[in-house]
Specification:
about 450 residues, alpha/beta, binds pyridoxal-5'-phosphate, 7-stranded mixed sheet, about 45% helix, single chain, Aspartate Aminotransferase, domain 2
Length: about 450
């Protein structure tokens, strides 16, 4: 490699550093929602494919300048849309290094440093969340794939117990797997089921309560009504209300019926890392698999989900592949995830955990919860605003008297620019949803958001 290529890299990285720090410095003052639409952005980038190339720094300068109006201020303290965290400083910096290192992290023989970092991040996580230390942790792209990965392991396991080797015999002719979910499960559970060959009409849907928690008496009745291989999906953190299923009541029922129990805890699993909030997860550690996102509550960059399976043999049975050239060494990342080549996406999780420590993760959780409580209390003080849910965790749902007024307020908030919240429908009514998921949110951000909403409501009224 000649010197100019090295210089081109170094200049490109310097340009990226400038663009990144410039963007982050602008976050507090820029409108949170993007000013430009997709069409604006396509116009901005939509030149014909260039005949000739250019140097890395020019590429980055051009990209940064043109993208700017179409960027949403997710890394700041006043983005409350969906459930998506910001990025912890150590995790962000580590993520850059992951790209510079360029380690294809499926195999521990090939990439021992990054595989070790991921393995230790996984161990730390299990310890923080009170999950079995011997569980396998597969780093996947996000909660969707974590749910899929866990449920694939579960499907194999329950069929194996019924005497059916899925790897050998395939799905056709296999005993039907009963797939039991709550009425307020996340949509990614249905999509994971679809990938696994389980149709919507085949799912057993158990009623939930007013906050979206599965009803134990109904689960019991549904499970009594059937037999055969069984998977039960529970949830830590309903995406609207933030509510947690009552694991201590539900898990023994599922166990009695021989179920594989999976917990979708994309953002809720992290509650177990805070001594103050851990009661929400009581009994959860008795499940067979757990899905979570580091890119939500732990605040690492996308993409970073984790598929945790109690018995690593179950994930290996679902995912280990063949190939004489693959240099097997035991338990490698590609044994427990659907991927072969992959970026070392668990390394930023190691960096976040190293940067925060046990007390820092607990403090982060407690701060998110305290901010959510403050937001709910501030919003309740605005005339006409009703907070719809009990704020036990990080989610706050609110609305005005009519659905139209609620939707109009949602649009007005995005246009005004101080903060971003996103809409949802809950029990047939339009609501706005404010998810406290960013380490960067301060009490001042909460106050500024409430003040902006107060003034929008009063000017509309
Ligand atoms: C966000 C979320 C998912 C999906 O996670 P992705 O990382 O977006 O794939 C699944 N379940 C719940 C409860 C979620 O909040």
């Amino acid at each position: 490699m000649d010197d100019s290529a090295l210089d081109d890299r170094a200049r490109g990285l310097a340009a990226a550093h400038r663009a990144a720090t410039g963007f982050l410095a602008s976050i507090d003052d820029r409108p949170v929602w993007p000013r430009a639409s997709l069409d604006d952005m396509l116009d901005a980038f939509g030149d014909a494919l260039p005949d000739d190339g250019t140097d890395a720094a020019s590429v980055i300068d051009e990209m940064g300048t043109r993208a700017d109006p179409g960027l949403v201020a997710i890394p700041g303290g006043r983005f409350f849309g969906f459930v998506i965290g910001a990025t912890h400083p150590a995790a962000l910096a580590a993520d850059w290094l992951v790209s510079a290192w360029d380690q294809n992290s499926g195999s521990s023989r090939l990439t021992p440093a990054t595989v070790a970092l991921e393995r230790i991040a996984g161990r730390w996580m299990l310890e923080l969340l009170g999950l079995p230390a011997t569980a396998s942790v597969g780093f996947v792209t996000g909660g969707q794939m974590a749910n899929f990965t866990c449920l694939a392991a579960g499907r194999n396991a329950v069929l194996a117990r019924a005497g059916w080797d899925l790897t050998d015999r395939g799905l056709r002719g296999s005993p039907a797997v009963r797939f039991v979910v709550g009425a307020d499960r996340h949509g990614s559970i249905d999509r994971a089921a679809r990938f696994l060959g389980i149709g919507r009409a085949e799912m057993t849907v158990v009623e939930s309560d007013d906050h979206g928690r599965m009803r134990p008496d109904t689960l019991s009745a549904e499970l009594d009504a059937g037999s055969g291989p069984l998977i039960v999906c529970l949830q830590a953190g309903e995406v609207h209300t933030g509510a947690f299923d009552d694991f201590a009541a539900l898990l023994p029922i599922a166990r009695e019926h021989g179920a594989w129990v999976h917990v979708d805890g994309a953002f809720g699993l992290w509650a177990a890392a805070s001594p103050r909030l851990a009661r929400l997860c009581a009994g959860m550690a008795d499940a067979d698999s757990w899905a979570t996102d580091a890119h939500k509550t732990l605040n690492v960059p996308y993409d970073c989900g984790m598929a945790i399976v109690r018995d690593p043999a179950d994930s290996i049975a679902a995912f280990r592949t063949g190939g004489d050239y693959l240099m097997y060494t035991g338990l490698d990342p590609w044994d427990v995830t659907p991927e072969l080549s992959r970026r070392a996406r668990g390394v930023p999780a190691w960096a976040a955990l190293r940067g925060l420590g046990r007390s820092g993760v607990a403090a982060l959780l407690d701060r998110l919860h305290a901010n959510a409580v403050a937001m709910a209390s501030g919003l309740s003080s605005v005339p006409g605003v009703e907070v719809v849910n009990d704020v036990d965790y990080t989610q706050v749902m609110f609305r005005l008297a009519s659905d139209d007024a609620t939707r109009a307020l949602g649009e007005a908030i995005l246009t005004e620019g101080t903060a971003a919240v996103t809409g949802a429908e809950w029990r047939g009514r339009a609501t706005l949803r404010c998810s406290m998921s960013s380490w960067a949110t301060t009490p001042d951000d909460v106050e500024r958001t409430v003040a902006a909403i107060r003034s929008l409501v009063s000017s509309a009224g």
